[in-house]
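One-letter codes give the sequence; the fold follows as tokens. Both lines appear below.
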Amino acid sequence: MNNVPEMKLAIVAVSRDCFPMSLSEGRRKAVAESYKKKYGEIYECPVCIENEKDMEKALSDIKEKGCNALVVYLGNFGPESSETLLAKYFDGPVMFAAAAEETGDNLIDGRGDAYCGMLNASYNLKLRGIKAYIPEYPVGTPDECADMIAEFLPVARTVYALRNLKIISFGPRPQDFLACNAPIAPLYKMGVEIEENSELDLFEAFNKHAGDKRIPEVAADMAKELGSGNKKPEVLNKLAQYELTLLDWIEEHKGSRKFTAIAGKCWPAFQTQFGFVPCYVNSRLAARGIPVSCEVDIYGALSEYIGSCVSMDAVTLLDINNSVPGDMYNENIKPKYSYTLKDTFMGFHCGNTPICKLGACEMKFQRIMARTLPVEFTNGTLEGDIAPGDITFYRLQSTADAKLKAYVAEGEVLPVKTNSFGGIGVFAIPEMGRFYRHVLVEKNFPHHGAVAFGHFGKAIYSVFTYLGVEDIGFNQPKGMLYKTENPFAK
């Protein structure tokens, strides 16, 4: 992943002036030692904060050391104003955690009351309108706090990345895919920058790359990656030219931003004018941590990028596409798994899923487009069944009135042959049928969903919470009714 940030964590201890500062300092040291032993580096700020002057010293110290994520650690009760002001002025994601008492033999001078202090800290954060990550149970031993910090790291990495992200789009959404359209005002509010361009801008840049001396090298790399799956070698040079066009555009247009994602377009005019479809190129960039969504799906690109930051791995964007036929379910799923037919569906897109996430693949033509166009205009898809394993299906979206909503659901891709085309897999998510009806349909989510390869629901949910998303749907277990679910339904 070369399009996600490297994080440098800092831990700063706080101490209320009527408690021993040494108690907070000793506990901070123990947490830092535990984290270093189990997970890696963390900068231990030597300034323990009792007041606002201490806060300024600590803030200056961690900025000077290049830290971009912060753990505010309540080794004792803590000064609620100073500790929350530190979170306010620190330019990066912040976590709050508190120390548990160590032993029943030391509850006089050795009692820190951080359990109580955490309540005041959270109250003060809310009063000041400051966002912070607070673990599910934010009070713990040094080892437990180290584990909390480790869970904070992917959240911090994602939040920091979004504040430094530019999404580059090309072209308006296709007419029949307005479901992928949504107001961009919420993106600006969360710190994401948008650059919207026309397809004509992209086409001009592509034509200027004709004869680029780097094309043969990129085409050779594509041929090597595809191996025997290279069924359309005649289109490799054009695909290489397009890949170079996108990469150069990113470098020339990222401006002050450190990270990028792309919302691209592939129809209806793209194929006839460019002479290919961009799916395989999109897959290659996604494998490098530069998601390229289809159909100018800006929130799809954003969702993919969130998954890249959380998982530190390639992601994909798929249509929540079609039901699994009953005969396929009865033959290949029912005898081996506890999933019902309604728990299953097929996730599909034309060919944008990276090779590393496919069981086997071939670079071919886009079968749907080829129904109305000459095949040679539709070359460039990456077809194959998605490799089985754990997945997280999720999306962040804006409503028409510019309010953020999201969903997260964990499941798996089953080792079932799809007998179909495109990049496709048989997905199983517990209680998918109810989730489909009362989250995806009821809350008007579009058909595109981002897929991270592994179970990352907890981290992605925490990212959405940190961003201030209040409406986060998930696949609720049986017996836990959705707000719109008929309690008498069977």
Notes: The chain has a mean pLDDT of 95.
